[in-house]
């Protein structure tokens, strides 16, 4: 058993987001988890406040894991592994930090008289429903505590494993504001395999959107990240938007690819193995910048909104694409689905 203490910064704020944690055990994966390593830690706090000045549209988060077996080459959270003296490439994909006491800590923190019942965003750092959640079941305990307290929350995931907790999500939706968002950047199988090889097939995620909404759990879609030259073709965008609108998505928003130092190098190195012809143009486009120019971001968002409006008008689902900004102190509220035929602008979430 190895013992140590650490601090880690969250990329989205560049300020300390997580409290001190104690590494208590290292577990080598076996069976379906062969080749992986799980670093068990005990966290002092699990509901964390995003530092002031953050660009994030929420104030409180829960992240029970760090590192992610989805292995998305563009993942913005990769550099956080460097703060643990771990690599941001293969280590990030295979060495997963697990806050084994997350469920009990959340229950205790929600019960504290100091807790104000604020909206909590989950999936803001690494995916809550990555494969090892099937092994540790941390989010069943977390969701159970949120239901008991009728505490509002939102979830962002790329995984159909979220359907395992459909019963808890239905219970939560009956007593508080809940929003699930599935990230589906493209239905192009070639691009999917090249950039997020550990995630469920995007068509399965579309079906998860349908099942969640059919069950009364509001579920929207982030078409993200949209990769210039790889997944931003008109037919590609039309395909994914048509599918998620038909699946009843209560909101559709888009985010263009952004590549910060560290992540950019991993992304381009892996892309060279599958799409070598795209490396040069993308390297040039992101030379000296992490984000697309604002004009390009606006143009991309407008294209997606036009497609959403077109397919909503021809869809029988009748759902609106509205995201509702919550009051100060609650960050982004989950928003209720409404029947409408009027296109509305979406809030663009910088989560990728």
Number of strands: 14
Biggest sheet features: 7 strands, mixed
Number of helix segments? 11
Shape: globular
As a whole number of angstroms, the C-alpha radius of gyration is 19 Å
How are strands sequenced across the largest beta sheet?
6-7-10-11-12-13-14
Low-pLDDT runs of 5+ residues are 1-19, 318-352
Order of helices and strands: EEEEEEEEHEHEHHEHEHHEHEHHH
Overall pLDDT metric: 86
Class by SSE composition: alpha/beta
**Ends distance:** 35 Å
Helix content: 25-40%
How big a fraction of the residues is strand? 15-25%
Task: Describe the 3D structure.
The protein has eleven helices and 14 strands. With 352 residues, it is of the alpha/beta class. It has a domain at 1-151. The longest helix is centred in the C-terminal third of the chain and has 21 residues, at 294-314. It is globular, with a radius of gyration of 19 Å. Mean pLDDT is 86; it is low at 1-19 and 318-352.
How are the secondary structure elements laid out?
Layout (H helix, E strand, L loop, with lengths): L3 E3 L2 E2 L4 E2 L4 E8 L8 E7 L3 E3 L10 E3 L2 E2 L23 H5 E5 L2 H10 L8 E3 L10 H4 L1 H11 L4 E5 L8 H10 L2 E6 L5 H7 L6 H13 L4 E8 L7 H13 L5 E5 L6 H12 L1 H10 L8 H21 L38
Parallel strand pairs: 5-9, 7-10, 10-11, 11-12, 12-13, 13-14
Antiparallel strand pairs: 1-4, 2-3, 4-5, 6-7, 8-9
Helix pairs in contact: 2-4, 4-5, 8-11, 9-10
Describe the structure using short key phrases.
352 residues, 18% strand, 7-stranded mixed beta sheet, alpha/beta, disordered N terminus
